[in-house]
Write a structure and sequence with these properties.
Elements (H helix, E strand, L loop, with lengths): L6 H6 L3 E3 L5 H4 L7 H5 L2 H16 L13 H17 L2 E5 L6 H10 L16 E5 L4 H10 L5 E7 L5 H18 L7 E6 L5 H8 L2 E5 L12 H9 L4 H14 L9 H14 L4 E6 L5 H15 L1 E3 L5 E4 L2 E4 L10 H6 L4 E8 L16 H4 L6 H18 L3 E7 L4 H22 L10 H10 L6 H8 L11
Parallel strand pairs: 2-3, 2-4, 4-5, 5-6, 7-10, 7-11, 11-12
Antiparallel strand pairs: 1-12, 8-9
The protein binds 6-O-phosphono-beta-D-fructofuranose.
The site of 6-O-phosphono-beta-D-fructofuranose has 14 residues, from loops.
């Protein structure tokens, strides 16, 4: 039996959410919360739970079902992935936001940290790139390091119309036609909505291999759909284990009791903290492999909760600004601010129980006491000690923090982490009484871009832009 089906192994691999340092017993009663604070929200928590259950039953949270109902899709993905591994040297994701950050986070978490630099026989698949910007220098630089004839491009867009992704796709399409001729069709795979947008129609007309993002799954909640599963499988990641981890966490997070439900507890305490003006949510993994999880979480938390209007239409200006940090690196850059600056943050540490590899610090310079004490320890011991020490320093300075620990980084625990943070976000949305699944605030910028580039239908917006007050040269130095 595969390891992720063993209840005992699952139990060993269960992610732990430690909220001691959010509580008054640890950070003091001025900053910390008590059981009574949480219990006082009982009705609101119950109402939010009921909404989650009802929305899920009504099909409003299809992303939560991704770990359970995709066997057919998984089989197609595995078949495609195997075929691609045999024929391509590079696999490039064209996408942005929710169509890029999840694939990047999972790949970095689960494959070698210098995956692309390994020789082909030591990699689980082709070299992997995520092109999530339209910086011309970056696009040109990628073209310098890939062989178009041996590269497959996975264009991912839920809406099928995001300007950045479509521009990248148009460039790649033209480049492939020029460089390899009619065979280019096999070098493009589309991942998009079954109906919406331009990409699905182009993919059908052109005959690309296409994977569908289910209708009820929004971009930032789509990592466990083909958006993330195909790139992961192509790079040799066990996507069944990833989904099993997410399913395991989902079940834990079905419980109505906030004291038993890790996602609800995270959301409730963040909600209480927001109520006290903690407007910044720092995510600080103590593992380079989890660095991009902080990026993925930043979009999830920011786009989901940053809302002007409540569900009942009042102006609430909700949200918490996500900040990305990396332990230990940012101890030497940001932690000074976290311990002594404004009391406006909640830090979420992401820790690792056991690192996958270990490096010994040799016993050298034994006559230099200031560094000799390091000799004989491992780097794993050092990074873990630094994490504990930073948690302690923050606690002593009365700063709020959580610690989420992955017993080890593997597909099962990473799947759990994705589902945990998505449910946390959705539940925080319920508590804040906002829509955690839309992003109306990005429309103005998108429309202005369309107008500036002359998209038909945006003439009025172009005029509006042209009639804005000219910039005052006196304010430009
Ligand atoms: O997958 P799409 O539709 O191209 O969208 C990319 C990203 O753009 C946004 O719509 C914001 O502009 C995100 O919500 C989304 O993840």
């Amino acid at each position: 039996m595969t390891r992720y089906r063993h209840p005992q192994w699952q139990e060993q691999m269960k992610i732990q959410v430690d909220y001691n340092n959010m509580m008054a017993d640890y950070v003091g009663k001025e900053e910390g919360f008590t059981r009574q604070h949480i219990e006082a929200l009982a009705d609101q928590i119950q109402g939010a739970h009921k909404n989650m259950v009802e929305k899920r039953a009504a099909g409003g949270m299809d992303w939560r079902n991704l770990p359970f109902h995709q066997e057919e899709v998984v089989q197609q993905i595995l078949k495609t992935a195997e075929e691609l591994r045999n024929r391509c040297d590079a696999f490039v994701v064209l996408g942005i936001g929710g169509s890029a950050l999840g694939p990047l986070a999972v790949q970095t978490a689960l494959n070698h940290l210098h995956y692309n630099e390994l020789p082909a026989d030591k990699r689980g698949g082709p070299r992997f790139y995520v092109l999530d910007n339209v910086d011309p220098e970056r696009v040109a630089a990628l073209f310098d390091v890939i062989d178009p004839a041996q590269t497959v491009f996975n264009v991912i867009s839920k809406s099928g119309s995001t300007a950045e992704t479509m521009a990248q796709f148009m460039i790649v399409y033209q480049m492939l036609r020029e460089k390899i001729g009619s065979g280019y069709v096999a070098q493009i795979i589309a991942t998009t909505d079954a109906e919406k947008g331009n990409l699905i129609n182009i993919a059908r007309d052109e005959g690309y291999t296409t994977f569908i993002i289910p209708a009820g799954v929004g971009g930032r909640y789509s990592e466990l759909s083909p958006v993330g599963l195909l790139p992961a499988a192509v790079c040799g990641i066990d996507i069944r284990e990833l989904l099993a981890g997410a399913a395991y966490m989902d079940r834990l997070c079905e419980q109505a009791d906030v004291f038993a439900n890790p996602a609800y507890m995270l959301a409730v305490l963040q909600y209480l903290a927001m109520g006290r003006g903690k407007n910044i949510s720092v995510m600080m993994p103590y593992a380079d492999s989890l660095k991009y999880f902080a990026d993925w979480y930043a979009q999830l938390w920011a786009e989901s909760l940053g809302k002007r209007l409540s569900l009942s239409g009042e102006e609430v200006f909700a949200g918490q600004t996500p900040v990305k940090a990396l332990g230990t690196t940012d101890q030497h850059s940001q932690v000074q601010l976290y311990t002594e600056g404004p009391f406006d943050k909640v830090v979420t540490f992401l820790g690792v129980g056991r690192y996958r590899t270990e490096v010994n610090i040799p016993r050298v310079f034994e006559n230099v006491p200031g560094i000799a004490f390091l000799g004989g320890h491992t780097l794993g011991e050092l990074i873990t000690a630094e994490q504990l020490a930073t948690e302690y320093a923050l606690m002593k300075a009365r700063r709020l923090s959580f610690t989420i620990t992955l017993p080890e980084i593997n597909a099962f625990t990473v799947g759990q982490l994705i589902q945990l943070l998505e449910i946390q976000t959705a539940f925080a949305g319920e508590l804040l009484n906002i829509n955690a699944f839309d992003q109306p605030g990005v429309e103005e910028g998108k429309n202005a871009t369309y107008a500036l580039l002359g998209r038909p239908g945006y003439e009025a917006k172009k005029q509006e832009l042209a009639s804005r007050p000219p910039k005052n040269p006196a304010y430009i130095i």
